[in-house]
Each structure stands twice: as structure tokens, then as C-alpha cells.
Amino acid sequence: MNILAIIPARGGSKGIPKKNLTLLNGKTLVEHSIHHAKGSSLVNRVLVSSDSDEILEVARKAGAEVPFKRPAELAGDQVLDFPVFKHVLDELAARENYHPDLVVHLRPTAPYRDPRWIDECIQLLIDHPGAHSVRSVSEPEKHPYRMFTIDGDGYLDPIMKHKHPEPYLLRRQDLPKVYFYNCVIDVTRRTTLTQMNSMTGKKILPFIMNPDDVYDIDSPRDLELTRYFLAKKA
Fold first, then answer.
1. What tens digit of pLDDT does each residue of 171-217 get?
2. pLDDT tens-digit map of 219-228
3. 75-84, long-range: CB within 8 Å, 24+ apart, which pairs?
4. pLDDT at 91
5. DSSP per-residue letters across 34-97
6. Within this chain, do residues 157 and 72 fall inside the same structural domain, yes or no?
7. Domain limits for position 33
8. Where do runs of H (alpha helix) occur along the chain?
């Protein structure tokens, strides 16, 4: 199968300037994801999508393909994943007549991955031909049954009241298993992207991860905590 890993790494970032080029344990964040992808035994190609010449050069030296630059209109902080991935697939189809079977999405903001997890996610989707995608998930630290919004009158309104009249009063052992999307690994069929115009489709398989293995860098605090914990794992 043709399996393409795409690492989206735009140049701008509000929380951490040049976040994708930030060093963590001697490598930039974008390099970590490149090395994860190249460590997979099933990924055939590794491509970085960026609007930044500096990121593209770092990616090229790390062994990723950088056949084209991302247009500026797809590099804003309000741009979602789908148009970025559509741009990559459209360019590869037009330039090379290349149409991958599966697309692996690796965010540089998740600098800790075992390449074997990538292979397990890919194999999971291969083994379930009726599924549209795979998403890595973990159990949350805080359960949504104990979460509220505040209504127009200023009262707490439980968000899971449709599941139980008083969900916040359930014992911990009675709470149902729930999972949050941890953004570590995504695998999607090309047809999900091109025919359904979706990053996930409707039939999403879970790849369940230990929450202790999930590091998501959005802020300077996240970066320092990740640096500390990864040093302890080394």
C-alpha cells in the first residue's frame, strides 16, 4: 500500500514563537515527528507541509520530502487541517499522479511517539476495511459527567444531563469509560479525504493510549513539562 505521512508545520505560532522549530532534547519539534514517521515500517513517504522556508530546510535535512511550499492563505491560525491536507493531495496528484491509499497525520506538537504505535494504527485501519479512519485517544483526567456550563440564569448546567439526571453525583466506579482525542496519531483513508471531504469520516476506530504517554505542546508551560518528563523517560 502507498502510505503517506504528512507533518503540518506552519511558521506562525502565538503561544510559542516559531514553535515547530523549538528545540526539545536536541531536536526541533518538527524533526521529532519526521523521525517518528521514518521509524515506521509501514510508512512509504514522509512529507512536511509548511509556509516557512526555515522549517522546510530543517525538514529536508532531517530526511523529509518538501516538494512544495504551503500557500500563505493556508497558513493562518484559523485554518483547519482539511484544506491543508487537500492541498498536499491535490499537488501530489497533479505533479506525480500519486494517490496514497492511507494518510498518516503527525503533529509536531506531539513530540513523543513510538513508531510502533504508528504501525499499529495503520494496521488497525487496514484490518477494518469498513472504517474511515483511526484516531488515537486516551481516558481524560477529568470526567465529562462532572462538567457543567453556566446557563443564562447563572446556574450550573450539567453537560451530560441527557445521559443521567444527576451525572455529577455518580460514584467514580460507576462512571462510563470515555476518551478524549489526544492528537498524537491520525490515520485516514485517502477516499475519506477526497470523497467525503473529511479528516475522519463517520466510522472512526480508536487507538487507545496511556494518558501518561501523551504530550501536547501548546504553551511554554507545556514545553517545560514535556522537557522534564521526557528527560525522566530517557
1. 999 999 999 999 999 999 999 999 999 999 999 999 999 999 999 99
2. 999 999 999 9
3. 75/10, 75/11, 75/12, 75/50, 75/51, 76/12, 77/12, 77/13, 77/14, 81/8, 81/105, 81/199, 82/193, 82/197, 82/198, 82/199, 84/8, 84/49
4. 97
5. HHHHHH-SS--EEEEE-S-HHHHHHHHHTT-B--SPPPGGG-STT--HHHHHHHHHHHHHHHH-
6. no
7. 3-137+180-233
8. 29-39, 53-61, 81-96, 115-127, 190-196, 220-233
Ramachandran sector of residue 224 (left: φ over 0; alpha: ψ -120 to 50; beta: rest): alpha
* 52 and 166 fall within a common domain: no
pLDDT of residue 12: 83
Handedness of CA 186, 192, 82, 48 (dihedral sign): positive
- The verdict on 74 and 39 lying in the same domain is yes
Q: What is the pLDDT of residue 234?
A: 67
Q: Are residues 133 and 144 in the same domain?
A: no
| 57 and 158 part of one domain | no
Total count of domains within the chain = 2
Q: What is the pLDDT of residues 9-43, one digit of tens each?
A: 999 887 788 999 999 989 999 999 999 999 999 99
Do 202 and 132 meet the contact criterion of CB atoms below 8 Å apart? yes
Residue 152, phi then psi, degrees to nearest 5: -65, -20
pTM: 0.93
> At 186, which CATH number?
3.90.550.10
Same structural domain, 229 and 148: no
The answer on 166 and 101 residing in a single domain is: no
Q: Is the pLDDT of residue 46 over 70?
A: yes
User: Both 155 and 66 in a single domain?
Assistant: no
